[in-house]
Design a protein that fits this description.
about 70 residues, alpha+beta, three-stranded antiparallel β-sheet, 1 helix, 3 strands, about 25% strand
Length: about 70
Protein backbone atom coordinates (compact mmCIF):
# COMPACT_ATOMS: atom_id res chain seq x y z
CA UNK A 1 0.00 0.00 0.00
CA UNK A 2 2.81 2.41 0.87
CA UNK A 3 4.48 1.62 -2.44
CA UNK A 4 1.30 2.53 -4.31
CA UNK A 5 1.04 5.83 -2.46
CA UNK A 6 4.67 6.66 -3.22
CA UNK A 7 4.07 6.00 -6.92
CA UNK A 8 1.24 8.52 -7.00
CA UNK A 9 3.28 11.14 -5.19
CA UNK A 10 6.15 10.87 -7.67
CA UNK A 11 3.96 11.37 -10.74
CA UNK A 12 3.07 15.01 -10.14
CA UNK A 13 2.93 16.94 -13.39
CA UNK A 14 5.51 19.67 -13.64
CA UNK A 15 4.12 23.19 -13.96
CA UNK A 16 3.92 24.40 -17.52
CA UNK A 17 5.43 27.79 -18.20
CA UNK A 18 2.81 30.06 -19.72
CA UNK A 19 3.73 31.83 -22.89
CA UNK A 20 3.44 35.61 -22.89
CA UNK A 21 0.34 36.88 -24.64
CA UNK A 22 1.24 38.20 -28.08
CA UNK A 23 -1.91 40.27 -28.45
CA UNK A 24 -1.26 42.32 -25.31
CA UNK A 25 0.13 45.78 -25.72
CA UNK A 26 0.92 48.72 -23.45
CA UNK A 27 2.33 46.75 -20.49
CA UNK A 28 -0.70 44.51 -19.93
CA UNK A 29 -2.99 47.04 -18.23
CA UNK A 30 -6.59 46.83 -19.41
CA UNK A 31 -10.01 48.35 -18.78
CA UNK A 32 -12.73 45.74 -18.25
CA UNK A 33 -16.35 46.51 -19.14
CA UNK A 34 -18.80 44.01 -17.65
CA UNK A 35 -22.52 43.62 -16.99
CA UNK A 36 -23.90 43.75 -13.46
CA UNK A 37 -25.38 40.54 -12.08
CA UNK A 38 -28.70 41.86 -10.82
CA UNK A 39 -29.35 45.01 -12.85
CA UNK A 40 -27.72 44.14 -16.22
CA UNK A 41 -26.03 47.58 -16.38
CA UNK A 42 -22.55 48.06 -17.82
CA UNK A 43 -19.78 48.81 -15.34
CA UNK A 44 -16.10 49.54 -16.00
CA UNK A 45 -13.09 48.45 -13.96
CA UNK A 46 -10.19 50.75 -14.87
CA UNK A 47 -6.47 49.94 -14.76
CA UNK A 48 -6.65 46.19 -14.17
CA UNK A 49 -4.03 43.59 -15.08
CA UNK A 50 -4.75 41.11 -17.87
CA UNK A 51 -4.84 38.24 -15.35
CA UNK A 52 -7.82 39.83 -13.57
CA UNK A 53 -10.10 39.05 -16.53
CA UNK A 54 -10.67 35.53 -15.23
CA UNK A 55 -12.56 36.89 -12.20
CA UNK A 56 -15.34 38.38 -14.35
CA UNK A 57 -18.29 36.48 -15.81
CA UNK A 58 -18.10 36.16 -19.60
CA UNK A 59 -21.64 37.52 -20.20
CA UNK A 60 -21.20 40.86 -21.96
CA UNK A 61 -17.51 41.07 -21.08
CA UNK A 62 -15.38 43.57 -23.02
CA UNK A 63 -11.68 44.16 -22.45
CA UNK A 64 -9.78 47.16 -23.81
CA UNK A 65 -6.11 48.13 -23.68
CA UNK A 66 -5.69 50.89 -21.08
CA UNK A 67 -3.39 53.00 -23.24
CA UNK A 68 -4.39 52.63 -26.89
CA UNK A 69 -8.04 51.56 -26.25
CA UNK A 70 -7.83 48.63 -28.66
CA UNK A 71 -10.43 45.96 -27.91
CA UNK A 72 -8.75 42.72 -26.82
CA UNK A 73 -11.75 40.57 -25.90
Amino acid sequence: MNRLISLFRKNKPEPVATEPEDDLCCEGFVHIAYRGVSDDRMYIAYGRKWGDVRFFKPHGLRVFCAKCRRRLL
